[in-house]
Amino acid sequence: MQQNKSVTEFIFLGLTQDPIKQKMVFVIALIFYTGTMVGNLLIIVTIKFSRALGSPMYFFLFYLSFADTCFSTSTAPRLIVDAVSAKKVISYNECMMQVFVLHLFGGMEIFVLILMAFDRYVAICKPLRYPTIMRRQVCTTLIILAWTGSFIHSITQIFLALKLPFCGPNLIDHYCCDLQPLLQLACMDTYVINLLLVSNSGVICLSGFVLLMISYFIILRSLRNHSAEGRKKALSTCTSHIFVVIIFFGPTIFMYTRPPTTFSMDKMVAVFYTIGTPFLNPLIYTLRNAEVKNAMKKLWIIQITSDIK
């Protein structure tokens, strides 16, 4: 990568400078990251090997769990290691790579959530045409488009980051590399860069949230024409999805749709959507979904039975 700077490395200030609080950060982050990996990998394996979970909804859930796993991995391991490190150093190239990966899988999560809402809309509002509209070839094409959109978004973020000259200091008041904290260190007027950041990340987050809320509003309105049993099942699924949308988009909209100002709560908000949300997603999609839980049980029974034999 071309380095338009004199700074060759950055130092994170992390979430706290207090040694006792750092140990607490280490334990909590380790628990959340372990839970995220176990939960999402269980969903990935279950959907991959269970014939009962072959519908488009679980096809998209597979990619949401994959995106969650990678999204959390882009920040959590370094946060865990840095919590017990004397000096939290990251090289310039590693920092740029973290920006790329963070936005690649963050963007993927946004697009997959939109696809999941579209899938529910077709299933509930156009049930007779559902098998035709949401056939496997269409779902695969939609996922490819989601990956393409995420890649373009991430490349845009890297392009903006590489435009920033860093002359010193190199202390990042954060626990990960992202454009917002990097703008504070750039030795140039960052007004235009921040405007481009808001028009890219901010517009994606805000428009995605509005689109999802409108789609779920239409879905919930259409449930009035369904049977009590069908309404209950659809409402349970949509409620889970809406909760995921709110807990993910709320913090991201707060971070990416504002002027280049820093608030004391920024780091905790970032922790919530980079580590907290990927941890909560598998809990929401398994504890509230009988099909996923039953498929997991069957796979465990088959595995245990084969081990005994």
Automatic annotation (TrEMBL):
Q: Which UniProt keywords apply?
A: Cell membrane, G-protein coupled receptor, Membrane, Olfaction, Receptor, Sensory transduction, Transducer, Transmembrane, Transmembrane helix
Membrane topology field: Multi-pass membrane protein
Please indicate if the UniProt record lists Metal-binding as a keyword: no
Q: Name one Pfam family in it.
A: 7tm_4
- One Gene Ontology molecular-function label: G protein-coupled receptor activity
Q: What residue stretches are annotated with the G-protein coupled receptors family 1 profile domain?
A: 39-285
In terms of SUPFAM superfamilies, this protein maps to:
Family A G protein-coupled receptor-like
Q: Where in the cell is it found?
A: Cell membrane; Membrane
Please provide one cellular component term from the Gene Ontology annotations of this protein: plasma membrane
Family the entry assigns:
Belongs to the G-protein coupled receptor 1 family.
According to UniProt, the name of this protein is: Olfactory receptor
